[in-house]
């Protein structure tokens, strides 16, 4: 049963219960490029109360530096080591779990954030923002694009420059069963400019359907992402609360990774009515109209 | 139980049983751009025996004229009214079943074949081969692309120039529940140049996953396509045999549309062993190593 935070003593009890707050960003801290009211005050309240803060995002287009700039632009304090976009958790996975041999490369169907994070952990890559792949397929491509033993993994994220040429390359590399198939996150939509457009999970689907393979998903709600976070920031999962705007990613992530609590904010994707639907995929421990209410009413 | 045609009396019995032969093209008549041995002789044998011949293809990139040229290039006789690519069955569906109002347009995620066939039946369209959509999305697009009541249907086929911009447009149009969602065919792969690349069904998947909508599929193995064929060429389905190289499209199509028979050729996608697999999706009535064997051994 989800508890709606409305009264001051409920806020206080909620804040006292957790030492660590992990935040989804878009729909929680801001919406598109617009700040959400009171968020800055709430974040300052948490900092001054000595809470540990971690920023988590399934958005794979940005590196941690990019994210830090974006968070700071909303006048929210953030340090690099507090920021976990899926580009970073994916790079950690390739380096530490997959242990990609040094002579192998990652083929990226995605944007610059993934490239930056792979560079930082010293993993070679191809594809990604390579402008020469933003063109039509020609018959020479169809004759020459074939499985390539130098490609050890295909890593898919959000790619606003996706082309059939990139799909053809990734499809052929994935014919090799030794080539890993990785996905930064499975979000079906990408919230921006007050609406939605197809997201990373959707962009990757041509490869899932054509190869018949199931990718390893490295973003929320999968525990792989929490493993990456805990590897960087050591904390007691039971004293941590995940704050997000989507039931099927954020709140599910809190459950999948065994966190002590979850808080849904109603400033993003999921609506209050969805919590009470018979087939609600998962229910938050707490919910609140807006993150800003915490500072306003506590 | 599938019967393998091997002896002359089996060939004769098979040929006597049917008046109409419907052929899938790629993998049956040719492979990529290469002719398959003996096919020309088999087609001439059928013509000289007074059999009716129909060419069927899920390839949506070509119009009927394009296909006629391709068939003739392999020295196989074909008339325009014998040719049914999925671009044509899709156009017929939009015009006759959907009865798209004259003030509405079809947004095409696909190639020129669909445009030609929609032009012929007098249906307005946008998207398709429009070169101005083969570019990156910009922030102006994200602010302005929204549901559009002038778009009555999104029709997806194979599109080797697919871009995120086109996906964004189609995604927004499909937010309008009155906008129909159509797919020329669901083939996961596109056989060419001796290998495979992602096919029409795969290209459409970002829209299926992001919108949560299920498209109406207008190619094999769905009966909608046979309805279009029978509307053009009147014949007794029980005296007709479908000849193809894929169990889950061609042979399933013969079953779904109530044809009298089906013949699998082993020169394309499905292999002999698949017929005998425990989970074979569907089994042909007859199978043969190569279509050319019919003329050689009959």
Automatic annotation (TrEMBL), chains A, B:
InterPro entries attached to this UniProt entry: HAD-like_sf (IPR036412), HAD-SF_hydro_IIA (IPR006357), HAD_sf (IPR023214), PGP_euk (IPR006349)
Gene Ontology terms for molecular function: alkaline phosphatase activity; metal ion binding; phosphoglycolate phosphatase activity; phosphoprotein phosphatase activity
Gene3D superfamilies: HAD superfamily/HAD-like
Any one GO BP annotation for this protein: carbohydrate metabolic process
GO cellular component: cytoplasm
Cofactor note: Divalent metal ions. Mg(2+) is the most effective.
Active site, UniProt feature: 24 (nucleophile), 26 (proton donor)
Enzyme class: hydrolase
Domain of life the protein comes from: Eukaryota
Pfam family, one: Hydrolase_like
Residues noted as binding substrate in the record, renumbered to the chain: 57-59, 220
Needed co-factor(s): Mg(2+)
Catalysed reaction equations from the record: 4-nitrophenyl phosphate + H2O = 4-nitrophenol + phosphate + H(+)
Alphabetic keyword roster: Hydrolase, Magnesium, Metal-binding
Enzyme Commission number(s): 3.1.3.41
Residues where Mg(2+) binds: 24, 26, 245
The protein, known as: 4-nitrophenylphosphatase
